[in-house]
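Recall from the previous chapter that SMILES is a line notation for molecules. Here it describes flavin-adenine dinucleotide.
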Amino acid sequence: MQKTKNNNNLVWFRNDLRTIDNAVLFEAQKNSNQLIAVYCFDPRPFAFNKFGFKKTEKHRARFLIETVTDLKAQLNKLNIELLVFHAQPEDIIPNIFTEYNINTVFLQKEWTSEELTIENAVKSKCKNCIWHSVYNKFLYHPDDINFKISDTPQVFTVFKKKLEKHVDIRPELNISKYSEDNRIENNTKIPSLHDLGFEDFDHHTHSAFPFQGGETHAINRLQDYVFNTKKLGYYKKTRNSLVGKDYSSKFSPWLANGSLSARTIYWNIKKFEEEHFKNESTYWLIFELIWRDYFKYISLKHSNQIFKLKGILQKDYTWKTDQNSIQNWINGETTSDFVNANMLELKNTGWMSNRGRQNVASYFAKSLELDWRIGAAYFESLLLDYDVHSNYGNWMYVAGVGNDPRDRTFNVELQADRYDANGKFRNLWLQPSLF
Ligand SMILES: Cc1cc2nc3c(=O)[nH]c(=O)nc-3n(C[C@H](O)[C@H](O)[C@H](O)COP(=O)(O)OP(=O)(O)OC[C@H]3O[C@@H](n4cnc5c(N)ncnc54)[C@H](O)[C@@H]3O)c2cc1C
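With both inputs in hand, we obtain:
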């Protein structure tokens, strides 16, 4: 890239860390301008939140480093250079503008408050530039839906019915390769786990998520789960299980940081259905991706209300904040061995099954009547697949302040009998010496 040339494009990567089916990259390629990319490891997501948890704990920190490392390699193949910094974007991006004569910035559209605050801080320092943000996380693109976002139904089934038969899923976008001229000298370095404030650690041998971050690993997993092992074909039967890597797709950590697109999954499932077979299971994975979309539409509609104690239902309950009960839950020392096993799994691996999440969240919010936002903040800290919309949407749902028209409490003992009848999962985490 010639530094002197005007009208260069910049892609600012945040939670869209992929080159396949990336609408931001696609938009940035529409004109003949040269292109560079930037990613900032902003220290703020690694600081402590108001409940005393690190916003990002070590499991997701490592996954993110792996993801950015892979993104850099994939962009390199396209002759696009990724500049990586360990600093606040507003302290870095304005300098990049000047140094590389950036005219237009392309970025994924975000709408939650923390992302917007940072975006506005950068924009306020880069006033002469054109900002081009695009929706890039959805299965059903917000510009294609047949209702106003403010009319997003409060009940999932109604939402699903409005979309499924009436709205098309867009095809995947192809990203082209630049010529060698697009390259720049790049001496920036990806921070280590140590730089981000963590010690190195080994993967837990019992982890149900023994995978690495980055789109290469995401695509490998997709290929493996869907085509090589055809586990997709049994998904509906296995999705409520608790042990092992294949009872569910495990796509969520890659989806959460955008190293895999929901559309890529969708079109691969369609391909599988054409080449092999179509059944309830192949449909059900798409059904779950619609749930993912749903919580994004709910957060678009309700904005910061998803972080409020009364939730989107504006429901008043009495919530407790007893520190002992919170710590016992975190440490897997409650009176329920099923809750304990799940919480130990989360602490040791950054992973918990959907069945586990429903149970421990219900136990926290409905049985112990603890402020659900504290449980959600702990999940935010620990989960490999933390996604603001899915996390807060699901927590509100379970706590009775979200989209569940029924106000339910899980009976964790009955759930354990049903989903862990032989105790295998509980033994794995409560008596690891047996394994
Ligand atoms: C209290 C609570 C908190 C949660 N927090 C998160 C979170 O921070 N990030 C996150 O991605 N998911 C969250 N979930 C949803 C769900 O538990 C995970 O998406 C799922 O367990 C991931 O495993 P998988 O990829 O193997 O899912 P699969 O069962 O294989 O499903 C495929 C994909 O569908 C989507 N999906 C499935 N279930 C849900 C759901 N209930 N809500 C939204 N999307 C769904 C996910 O993107 C998932 O990767 C939460 C659920 C609960 C009950």
